[in-house]
Amino acid sequence: MSIVETLVDLLRLEQLEHNLYRGQSRDIGTKDVFGGQVLAQALSAAIHTVEPDRIVHSLHAYFILPGDVQAPIVYQVDRIRDGRSFATRRVVALQHGRAIFFMSSSFQVPEEGASHQMPMPKVKMPDEIPSLKELFKEPPKGLPEVLRRYFSEEQPVEFRPVSLDNPFAPVPREPFNHVWFRITDRVSDDQALHRILLAYASDFNLLGTAMRPHALSAAQPGVKLASLDHALWFHRPLRADEWLLYALDSPSASEARGFCRGSVFSEAGELVASVAQEGLMRVSDPKQKEHNPQ
Fold this sequence. Notes:
By secondary structure, the protein is an alpha+beta fold. The chain folds into 2 domains: about 110 residues, Thiol Ester Dehydrase, Chain A, CATH 3.10.129.10; about 170 residues, Hotdog Thioesterase (Thiol Ester Dehydrase, Chain A), CATH 3.10.129. About 20% of the residues lie in helices and about 35% in strands. The chain has a 12-stranded antiparallel sheet. The longest helix has 14 residues. The termini are far apart. The C terminus is likely disordered.
C-alpha cells in the first residue's frame, strides 16, 4: 500500500463488539502516540455508530495520558443522543486498562442556512513555496535521527510553510504562522474520511506557533510539548487531498501552557474549519521562560 493508503487503513479501526473498536499506532518519530492519530481514530469510532446521513460538525477532546506506540488502543463509544437533526457521541480511548483520551462530537443532517465567513489571509500560494523535502534535500548537521528520518521518508501529509523557522537557531517572531498542507495522494470522495484526515493533520503546527515569540522550538533541549485539549469545528465540505491553508495564531502563553487557534481555508478561499488547542509548553531553562520581544 502507499503511505496514504496505510494511513487511511490505520484510521478505519477494527470493530471488537457493539460500540467497541480497536486501533493500532503509526510511529512518526515521537516518543508517544501522535495526538492527531488518537483524535482521528476516536472520530472514526464515533462515525461508525452514526447514520450516514449525519456528518460531524464539531468535536472537543482532552488528552489525559501519553499513548504507548507499541500497544493497541481501544475506543469505547457512548451513544449519548440521536435526535431528528443532531446526534451526539462520547468516545473514551483506553490503553493498559486506563483512559488516555476522551472526546465528545456532534453530527448534523446537512441543511441550508445563513452563511458568511472571514476572508482568507493574503499569502503566497502553495505552488510558489518549496516543499520541506526540497528545503531539506541535505539535512543540516546535528539533525536528530528522528527528524532526519522524517525528512528522508515519504510522509502522508505534505506541509509547505509560508515562512520557515530554523529549529536549531530560532529567533523571536510574532505568534502567527501560515502553513499549506494536503494529503499526498487522492482518496475517495467520502466526506467523513476527509474530515477524519483533517482531524489527523490539525494537530500539527499549533504549539509551534505559541513558541515563536519566545525563540523556542521542539528541537531544543529542555523544551517539552504535549497537546492538552483540542477542539475542531467543520464549517463546509472539504477535501483533505487538496491544498488547505492553516492560518494560525497564539493569543496567549502562560503557566507552562500555550493557547493556539487555527483557521483552515481551501485554496479557493473557503473557510472550511476552525481549530483551538491548549498545550503543555514546559521549559526547563529558567532563562527561556520569560521572553517578550515587544
